[in-house]
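[job 4417] fold queue: 2 targets
>>> target A
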Amino acid sequence: MRIPALTIFAAQLAFVALPAAASTPITLDQAMSHPDWIGTPVETAWFSWDSKQVFYKQKRTGSPIRDTWQVAQGAKPKLVSDLEAAKIDGDEVVYNPGQTRALMLRNGDLFERDLRSGALVQITRGASRVESPQYASDERSVQYRIGTDWYSWERASRVVGPVALPRAAKDPAVNEDDPLRDQQLRLIATLKRQKDERDALRERMNEQRRVDPTLPPAPIYLGDKVAIEGSVLSPDGRWLIVVTAPKGSEKGRVGKLPRYVTESGYEEFDDQRTRVGRNMPAPHALKLVDLRTNKVQDLSFDVLPGVNVDPMADLRAAAKKDPLKGNRAVRVFGFGGGDAIEWSANGANVAVMLRAVDNKDRWIATVDLQGAKLKPLHRVSDKAWVNVDNSEFGWLPDNRTLWYLSEESGYSHLYTQPAEGGAQRALTSGKWEASDVRWSHDGSVAYMMCNRATPGDYEVCAVNAKGGEVREVTSLDGVERFTLSPDEKKLLVHWSASYTPVQIATVPVSGGAAVKLTDTRTAEYKARQWVEPQYVAVPSSAGGDPVWAKLYRPAQLEPGKKYPVVMFVHGAGYLQNVSKRYPNYFREQMFHNLLVQKGYVVLDMDYRASKGYGSAWRTAIYRQMGHPELVDYIDGVNYMVANHQADAKNVGVYGGSYGGFMTFMALMRAPETFKSGAALRPVTDWVTYNHGYTANILNTPDIDPEAYRISSPIEYADKLQGNLLIAHGMVDDNVFYQDSVRMAQRLIELKKDNWELASYPLERHAYVQPEAWYDQYRRIYQLFERTLKQ
């Protein structure tokens, strides 16, 4: 979002002029202690079937156990007993088209609630977990999936039985040509007689199946050269779409994760993921099965526009790799089914979302069921990578119109399009992001998350299906997610604030004041005063939009004093930390309070690559990770020096995961700016990271080695001049501990000084134990005290 320079300057003046309440001193031990002292947040929440009450899950203090609570407007929350829990609704609900019945999953079993009478019926009770419940198009039965098999529950008879049983095996009724087998059957009469008897029994069973509906269906044999990765049944029970991959496609060498501190007292080893490019995602195939005949037909990807054009042909040629032959590999969006294949409620139409394995194209296609052909409807391409977060789509109640999110305008927005073809309609537009779409049951209104005011201010918005003005339904600033009540009169909103963990409230769909239902914070925590972050827009030297940041500083700066500055870098790359929500990095936020108490100023930036700012912001790092982001952080330092009395000679930086990677890039590529840094659980060489994340941004090492070279901190280790702390959990199964060990060996060989490696034998990527949190942040604090206060 472009903010006029005069507006930014005025906001800065206003900030300096307004005093803030003095914060309550925080100790490092308190900030890093178990977060239960803050108060356990609300987790999953949902409406009762009659929309009169709300249920929610909450962790017990000092325990991993989750309890269920119920609350109504104007009442205190009440604990739901185990006996009562058997009668309440679940948090995953699927409604019939008329919204008179609802399916719900609870503890892996399936239930149906009659929304007119409130009667609850249990459909399954078993060891196998039920998934993907849906109503049959005639609503006389309920369909659901266990594994890749589909079952049906007939409401009238209460009978449960299989509907579709796909199998990755040879059809025993079909014999391949085999001279030796033919000879055996010709010469050995007993074998021939046994075969004929099996064939006769099989054919007799098939005859009975054709006329006797009480018999289970025959298995659907897809061959023994494929693995089944997903299946989706049509609501009319006529068709099954199966997602397959070549069997045995997992060939890459996996990493070994050693454990040194174990219950057994012996070293133990776990198999982990492969490295990027070492085990490319297997291409998918789609098979359409006519369940009346069990006929299987392949749905060819040849019709997808651009599928046979290689967007990386130049990179492939430069790397002296063979050119691509035929189509690019394609996968069903989202690993094989589920929300990637959507049937209309009447079972007449189906749409599939597909993605090229190279991540540069996404297609939505419908299926000509009689002709067994895909019909492309929509394509979005990105020379960098298509955003997997904007993959929501489905059918409107007319069974003929598709809705979907697309980033084609540069921002995620909501579109509709007739399935038979025709122009798409943009229901939302502008320099903001639409996500998490929920439709009213009649398809007249779409509700969605939106950040229209500023990139970090999230509300629920609504728009009419025919188009028109987008309106904000809530005014809570920090909405996390929401659901629509069964009577569609209210929204149940999860919301949070800078120092308020997730709570719930209800808001009328017409808008208005929120009714806050919970406050799970402890009295001790609520009594504290905190340094409220100031949301500032840092001008960018790269031009275009500013870089939004959270500023932590004293209410009043001492005239003439220069303050050491700490720059915080959030993790994940594609994550948004500069929002009005409760941060993922709540411990770090308390640490920033401590730093302010001790005389620092702190800036936390949503650098380029962060979430919530559109596709250009997201893809600015394509083939150059750590470069645009570093420019943003240098701009942030300059902003702090120019506006907040920051000491340009005493600048520190720290962060975990992607933040650890950026700490390396800051210290090694801009040593004149950054004096000290703490790299926590950092990536040091992108060649060692996973495929799903890294290949989006840097392609693969065999095709684009230069992108990996310029993006990996280990290549710049010789430039280190400042003071460096590396901290890493030794059982990190995300960024392997090996990353930090390799960097340590590189620094040893370069004879570098003023660095240390702190290892945590029992911690994974996300630390758990308060002692480990404390030890890590004690080291960070001491590093900054030792090096930035001269």
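>>> target B
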Amino acid sequence: MTTQDQGADSNAKNWAEKLAALIEKPWVRIAIPVFVTLMALTILHDLSAHVKWSDVQTDIAATSWKLMFFALCWTAFSFVSLSFYDVFAVQSVAGGKVPLPVAGMAGASGYAVSNCLGFSYITGTAIRYRIYASLGLDLGRVAGVIATSWVAFWMGLVLILGVLLTLHPEGISKVMPISETTETIIGLSMLAGLVVLFIWLSSGGRRLAFAGVGFDLPGGRLASLLTLAALGDLFGASMALYVLMPDDLGVGFPYFFTVYVAAIAVGILSHAPGGIGVFEATLIAGLGASGRSDVIAALLLYRVVYTFLPFGIASVSIGVASALTQRRRIGGAATWVYRVIRPIVPMVAAGVAAIAGVILLVSGALPSDSQNLGVLREFLPLSFVEASHLAGSVVGVLLILVSRGLFRKLYRAWAVAMLLMVAGFVASLAKGLDTHEAISMLGTIALLATFRGAFYRVSGASIFRLNVPWLVSVIALLAVIFWVGLFAYSHVQYQNALWWEFAWNGDASRFLRSSLVVAVILGVVAVTSLFGREIPAPARVGIPEAVEKLAMESEDTESQISLTGDKQFLISPDESAFIAYADTGNAIISKGEPVGDETAGQQLIWQLREMADREGKLCAFYSVSTKYLPTFLDLGLSILKIGEVARVPLEDFSLDGKPRKRFRQAKNRAEREGYVFEIIPKEELAPVLPELRQISDRWLEKKAGAEKGFALGGFDDDYLSYFDHAVLRDGETGKIMAFANLFQGGNKSELSLDLMRYEPDSPSFVMDALFAEMMAWGAEQGFHWFSLGAAPFSGIENRQLASIWNKIGGFVYEHGEQFYHFEGLRSFKQKFDPEWSPNYLASPGGLAAPRILYEVNILISGGLRGLTK
């Protein structure tokens, strides 16, 4: 390869890295879908520029009940087909493990929620995961059910598009501006690929596995049934809209179906809930239906019939079932019903609150009923009505924002949502006697009241803080609602005077003012959500006497890191055990395993996990041994190896031999040059602490770093006062050149150290000499082991069949030297010929594991900046 080629490859790699880094930025992840949404709304606005809201209302009223009945029938047909996705997928992946009615309910309810809220991979997938996991399916089988359902959808879509492209029905060429020959080749290729897939599946025994998670693929018969279910889903959904379209639109079903599929794809890209606004813009543009009020009316009715009605039915059904099963205390056949509906409740409640907010905002964006305003005019002042209109919009946006808190099962979110809906009920009546809106608020209040038991988590974080997916969804939704207002008042000429015009017929002015307030609220929430995360500073807490006693008596010296003062504690009632942990705001993480009685320790592990669940946070146990692994597995946690701990046996300890030559020579040289090793008891430490602090400060300056925490101790007078200290003095001056605090295990089981620092200008052999002296002293005192501490990522098998996390850990260990001397640290400890024992992280599996590791880094180093230092 030439130098020029290498330079080109290097430039391409740099650009790829820059692009990847750019995509990872939160504002970019928001900007792309929001840009798609705004572009679609701009197109939709242009396409409907000559349509009046009154014309749309007239067309909606003129729609016959016969057409509505057909649309309802096709919607039912589509959702029955959707339910069969999961019925057949469960038979393939987990035959006999899940009752088929449960699978059907999971599929139908999951799609009803995801169609309404959007983000099917968060909402619909989460619903089905929680249902199947509650019935005992492991992660592999749950993933198999969901993946099989997705594959079924694509098989049905490929079959329909392949047939359309092959047979060239009338109008399809308008959508695919290519020659008939090319069209036929594409269609036949799609059908041939599908046939090959069916033949491959029919041979039996097919299995898909990735990153240690695998599941059986359906056989030929089940694959055929899944494809039929997909055909029913796609055909029913598209027909529900097609029958509502005006007869004179002049497009056949093949052309309409192709545009319909494209609209769904663009809607998914936008991340708007249900693709609202983007889906409509794509359809109107694709069908060439600009300026037609009857097409907009058909799209609005379709939203009601196919999106909101199934969600409403699912919500009410779940509410009724929840109330009945609770009354009967779930017995017999009602047991699986309760187990199915319980995981769904938070997501349904989030959708209910969001829809209630949308109703209030859309109502505020549309003209008020002049007759109702006339009634209010008789006994209410204009200022009260204006304030009520503004309050209704504020309540609406807050309900949408608080829906994520409901999704996370937060009790405060439920209480706030109930209060907001009461305020929404009052505002609905006070701003225009909108009885339909008020009744919907009452119905929402009643529904959320039945779900009260599902919201048990208590969190200190703001219930209005959103993550990136929710923020994108809310921005897109509010953009659509704002467009609705622009569309409703498109006949009103904009003037600056509209902002301060207060009149009974000033609907446009009220819309502008409420939109501004909503935008301000959304802006504040966006800024605080993206940039306002507060990482709790480690609070210096007093160490309870029980913790001091147990830590100092423990045979595991690592327990003494609990005394650093930056952790909180759970202590058993009889004070026979404790567990130390820290709270990052997103996760509760223990440092090590429980200290003390093992039975009491098991209960503390469950208690910490339950506390994290109540607060809606992740829970993990960092740097644990094999002692409590069964308990961690019972909690449903994944066990990840994060390194190894080195321990040197001190019985018959000697510095003889080639591996320890470096330390033997350092010790001998220190003795020749007059250095003196000394143990300073903790009772005599106070007068020496100022000198030790000066050494520590100069050492930190040389390292250009900062004190660590959580898993490592820093220089703190209270913390260091718990321990004897090993020091190396210059024999001539008496000056201390290096020191280390000593962890001494109970019954002389183990000797170790935490803080080890030295004068930056001291001779190079000082640290090695101190190490050698400490180990020799430990052997003389009768200690059984000397712990050298952990070597991160050491001993992780990076093989072809290893889990993905092992491969990542192995890669970091091999290639992460520029950030941390992983191999060098292990090589240093290996010179003592230690015995290595595994070190684990017990945490939720999947994508939660890297999040936990980042939270641990925050606790230890203060984030990425501290890590690089």
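[job 4417] complete. Note on B: The chain is about 60% helix and 10% strand.
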